[in-house]
Structure formats: C-alpha cells, structure tokens
Amino acid sequence: MTFYSRSHRLLAALALIGLLSGCSVFQQRDEMARFNSAYDRGDYGLAASVMAVSDKSDSESKHVLQYLHRGEALRLEGDYQPSIDAFDRAEAGMKYLDAEGFASAASENVMSVLVNDSTRDYRALMSEAILVNTYKALSFLALGNDDYARVEFNRADDRTRRAVDFFSEEIAEQKRALQNDPANARTVQRSIDSGSMRSVIQSNYGDPSAWSVYPDYIVPASTYLYGLYFLANGGSDVQRAVTSLQRVSDMAPGNATVKADAELAEGLASGKLSRQDQPDRVWVVYENGLGPVLEEVRFDVPLFYSYHGDAQVILTGIALPRYRDRTAVSGHLSANAQTTADFAQMGKVIRTEMQERFPSVLTRAISAAVVKGLIQHKATESFGAAGQLGSIIYTLATTQADLRGWQAMPDHWEVARLERPADGRVELTDTLRGDLGTVSVPDQPYTLIYVKRPTAEAPATVMLLDLQGKRPGECLQLSGGGTPARPCAS
Questions:
Q1: Is residue 445 part of a domain?
Q2: 38-56 pLDDT, tens digit each
C-alpha cells in the first residue's frame, strides 16, 4: 500500500467518525426541538408522539431520554398508565444508578474518549430518577392505587439517601477506567492538577465550587411530597413526615407553608395535636416553568505531554457542558386568596448534583483531549500534512459537549395551604393574568391540587388527588379567560 493510499484512508476514516458523530447529535437536537415546540404550547399528545419508541426496541438504556420525555407528556395528558409504563422503561435503562459497584461497558468508555460523551448511552441525573419516582407516585394516586404510590414515594426517598454514595462511586469508576492506560492517566492527572489548568477553567467556564447549591443533596419537591403523603396517612408514618418536612423547611426557611407543615407533623407525632381535631386541608403545589438546559462552553486548555521521552505543553480544545436557566411563568397562583410561594428550585438541585459530578465530566474531557492530541502527533509523524489535516478535522468534529438532558423538568415549585371550603370550591387565579378556573375538592381530609404549567401559553394542568389514596383523582386543564375547566385529553 502506498503512502498516499494509507494517508487518504486515514483521512477518510477520521472524517467519517466526525461526520457520524455530528449526524447523531443533529438528530438528537432536531427531535428535542420538535418536542419542545409542542410541549411549550401545551400540545402534550403531539409531544408524546415525537418521543415514541418502536415496540420492537428491547434496549431501554438507548432510549432513556425518549421515555423520560414521553412519560411526562403523557402524564400531563392525564394518560396515567401509559405514562407509568414509559417511566418504567426509563428506569429500566437507569440500572447503573442503583447497582452497587457499577462499571461502564469498556467499549462505551472507549468511544466517549475517542469521540465525546454523547456517544454513550444517556446517563440520567440522580435528580431525574428521583423525579421519575415522584411523578409515578402522583400518577398512582390519580389512579387510586395507594399501594403502588407508597412504593414509588419510598423509592424516591431511597434514591435521595443513596445519592452521595453514587457520586463517589462515579468518580471511582472514572479512576478505574484511567488505570487501563497508565501513561495517559499520568498525563491527564498532571494536566488537571496544574495551576494553569485551574486558571483557564475558572476564566472560561467558572468555578463550580462557587455555584449556588443546596447544603445537602435533595430534590426538595420530591421530599416535600413524600412528607405530605406520610403526614396524610398517619400512624407510624408520621415520623417520616416529620423528618422530611423539617429537611425541606430548613432548605426553604422563608416559606411559611412548609414551616407550618413541619410543625403540624411534629405536633401530630408527639401527640400535642389530635388528628381528629384538625380541619380538612388542601395543598396547592405549583410546578412552574421550564428547567435549566445545557449549553456548550468550548475553550483551549494546556496539556502536559511526555512524547518520545520529551516533556511538552500544548494547547488544545475541550468542550464542557454548563447549565443555563430558561424561563418561569411570571407571577404566582392564588387559591381562594392564598398565594403560592417558592420552596424548591430545579436549577439549584441540578447544580448541586453537577458540582458533585463535575470532576468526572472534566476528567473525561481532558482524557479525550489527550488521546486526540496523541492521534494528531502520530498522524502527522506517520502521514505528514494529510495525516495532520485528517486528525484536525476529526478533532474539531468530535470535540463536543454532551448537551442531552430531560427538558420537561420545571424551573421551580411553589406551595400554598388552605382549609377545605365548605362548598369544596377552590378558585385558582394567576396573580398576573387573572382567573384560571375553579376546581371542586371532594369531601376528604387531605387533598393535593398539583398544578403544572411549563409556559404562560400552555394551559395549567391540574391533578386533583386524595393524599390518602382512597379514591381516584381527576385531571383538568385550566386556560382562564372565562373558559371552563375541561378534562385532560384522555
């Protein structure tokens, strides 16, 4: 084989890898754009259809994101069992979050270094998995299946407790992967530990240690709903409510409703308050807006090589994912003149988790830069200008941050509490836009009105739920402007 033949083949192979990587990313982003277009305007049936997965697919791990988006769109349609089924399949693809001593497939690690993290099966955030269990619990309450709702609330709480251990194991996994290539491992670690690397990252990306995060890893909305559920069910479960509601109150010290709920749970648990003397209560939880999404930050970093025995420092590009906030629906909800107040922010939850996971993300990005830098050296050395050109095209095409994420999560949650009115009528009002509609609360002691509204253009989806799970719930969509409440599409 001639020099030119070999160099042309190398050039073609590297260019093909770059092209395939780019096509895959384009397809993913096109699918997300179509989903978001439908989801943002409240066309949840169309949004769910965009994320349909063939029934013949037997690999849940390759379709976790589709199942996550589809499951939430179906839930907002009031199509609860299909939503649960989609979330079940998403969970089946998240087994690595629950396995002790988990390890990635070797081929997947290799491809994420040679190309980028988007070539790996999607690795869901722990906060996403916790929300899956919470949404399933609410759906089971809507179906009147209290036993399964309890299982899902407990799963969400269990994942919350195990999250810190998982993050530690993820970092350990990355170190084990690097040990398979000791020479590159030394280069990666030397580069990460250098002061110049830290300076470049802080200048171009920011300092993750300075992010506004929660003091403990928790998804406050999930922990709060867990607490409300066990508060409503009484008996020995009340102590669970005390612990959970106090945790959330500590993280939202300015929220009077959450503080009052923690005090109520404590009073019932200690016997200072009698359950029989308590009025029937209604909680309005408002899931508001569109949660953070990832953007790419690309910049040059110094890498410390030892090549043919010579120490070298070169500048090469890396791409890192960074979250940016989207929008919330301005204003609040008012329920019979009781106005909701913020108590949980999704951006803060995600940045708390990302702060823990950032060392692994950075290590993989630096590892990829080291390997691609060596490829450029060797291609240039072996094939001259053609090899150098091919390796540069390949490096530019494959240096991309993984920007995938579950984009149906909210910006934040709000809550209000009121006594059940004698006639059961609760008027929901957008404090900036006026009346949304009226819901009729059944005669029951503990009611949850769960409202989700991604944008001001979308209707407010209302799940009217019995927190004790004794009767099925109701799903309504409220558009305001004098339009009466209507059942969800299903």
A1: no
A2: 999 999 999 999 999 876 6
